[in-house]
Design brief:
Layout: H1 4-8, E1 18-19, H2 30-43, H3 53-72, E2 80-83, H4 86-95, E3 104-108, H5 117-121, E4 128-132, H6 142-148, E5 153-159, H7 171-181, E6 185-188, E7 207-211, E8 223-227, E9 243-247, E10 250-253, H8 267-283, H9 285-304, E11 309-311, E12 320-325, H10 330-341, E13 343-344, E14 346-348, H11 353-359, E15 364-368, H12 375-394
Parallel strand pairs: 1-13, 3-4, 3-5, 5-6, 6-7
Antiparallel strand pairs: 2-8, 7-8, 9-10, 11-12, 12-15, 14-15
Helix pairs in contact: 2-8, 3-8, 9-12, 10-12
Bound molecules: pyridoxal-5'-phosphate.
The site of pyridoxal-5'-phosphate (PLP) has 15 residues, from helix 4.
């Protein structure tokens, strides 16, 4: 049975706040923090180099994390590249291959800037960017992607779950479209990894960009790039730990994943991430998916029943619920929620200006749910928003 109260004991910070900003970053459970402490207190050394015991122990723990992550995503450890966040994972794909003038990339209007700007920047190489539009609920019809394909299409880059709308894209269909046309597909799983089950076909996309610090509950500064064909991409950072040999100006890179991880990585972070992925496995992704979807569904329904509150996104959504209260500035609403009820929400344009533009607004308040949130917290959110609306009616100038 999914016992959210038992889970919450592993997140002491939740005694002080109602944390509804999981789409930005999540809290980290005690076992992962303890694994990080253990690294610092018991065996801290560098990774992959050095013969002494601390270096060997560190390397073993780091590689154990890679195996845990590989099991989680049903791939081989050699397919797992550790990065510092989703953004870096996507940029490695953007800069790790040759682009020629006229190459064509398909993405969408609702992407986070991290899955948008790397492709926009390739236009300086003559790459043509096709930005497919979503509907008003943030859903992209895969048929539109199919229709956008040309004989020069070299990549389809799409997010699984929108951080603006909470909409879930039919990535299985998009990946099949890519496979049928022999076009690589990149899935930005920033809002889905650890929160939604990924089918075996989903996991066969060419590039899966994943944050360690959101649904996988790992520490900040951790990310993952899963590559189907690690030999097909060129490392974008060169240096120590990534080469087999160097003679004069000649060198040979190590095999993946090592060639993609030059320099000292975020060792404590990756060790903590390994432990947090075990923790998510213990919770069960399908349990988390049901729990989070239920909270989001109830929150969206109850918020939309309040006069003067607009909720965005589809009825069937992942754990993201964006809304606005009348004409109030979203930052003011978010601040009031914090000050009156210790509720942490995100406000603003959520690093996705084109998506907000498509709605004709310049910001929302975003409540986003995670494995440890409760129905009671949803109630408090709804009551607090109602209170803001009531004070707005009673005293229109005093709220903000
Ligand atoms: C859909 C999406 N893509 C990419 C990112 C960037 O993630 P990161 O902060 O791990 O680089 C985010 C962050 O919120 C996101 O929601």
């Amino acid at each position: 049975m999914y016992d959210v109260n038992a889970i919450r004991k592993d997140f002491p910070i939740l005694e002080h706040v109602i944390y509804l900003d999981n789409a930005a970053t999540s809290q980290t459970p005690k076992p992962a923090v303890e694994a990080i402490n253990e690294y610092f207190f018991a065996y801290a050394g560098n990774y992959g180099r050095g013969a002494h015991r601390l270096a060997r122990q560190t390397t073993e723990h780091y590689e154990n994390s890679r195996e845990t992550v590989a099991d989680f995503f049903s791939c081989e450890p050699t397919n797992v590249i550790f990065t510092k966040n989703t953004t870096e994972s996507i940029n490695i794909v953007a800069h790790g291959q040759e682009w020629s003038p006229g190459d064509h990339i398909i993405t969408s209007t609702i992407e986070h800037h991290s899955n948008y700007l790397p492709w926009v920047a390739l236009r300086t190489h003559g790459v043509i960017l096709d930005v497919v539009e979503s509907n008003q609920e943030g859903i992209i019809d895969p048929a539109r992607i199919d229709a956008a394909i040309t004989d020069r299409t070299k990549l389809i880059a799409l997010s699984h779950v929108s951080n603006v709308f909470g909409s879930v894209q039919d990535i299985s269909r998009v990946i099949k479209i890519g496979q049928r046309n022999d076009i690589p597909v990149l899935i930005d799983a920033a809002q889905s990894a650890g929160h939604l089950r990924l089918s075996s076909n989903d996991l066969r996309c060419d590039f899966l960009a994943v944050p360690g610090h959101k649904g996988l509950l790992g520490p900040q500064g951790t990310g993952i790039l899963i590559l189907q064909d690690p030999e097909g991409l060129r490392p974008t950072t060169l240096g120590g730990g990534a080469v087999e040999w160097v003679r004069g100006c000649e060198y040979e890179l190590l095999k993946p994943p090592a060639c993609f991880e030059a320099g000292t990585p975020n060792i404590p972070g990756i060790i903590g991430l390994g432990r947090s992925v075990e923790y998510v496995n213990m919770l069960g992704v399908s349990n988390v998916e049901k729990h989070v979807a239920n909270l989001a569904r109830v929150a969206a329904k109850k918020l939309s029943e309040i006069d003067n509150v607009t909720v965005y996104g589809p009825k069937d959504r992942a754990g993201v619920v964006p809304f606005n209260v009348g004409q109030l500035n979203p930052h003011d609403v978010s601040m009031i929620l914090d000050e009156t009820s210790s509720i942490c929400t995100r406000s603003g344009y959520h690093c996705a200006m084109p998506a907000l533009e498509s709605l004709g607004i310049n910001g929302t308040v975003r409540a986003s749910f995670g494995a440890y949130n409760t129905a009671k917290e949803v109630e408090t959110l709804v009551e607090s928003v109602s209170m803001i609306v009531t004070s707005l009616v009673e005293s229109p100038h005093s709220v903000a």
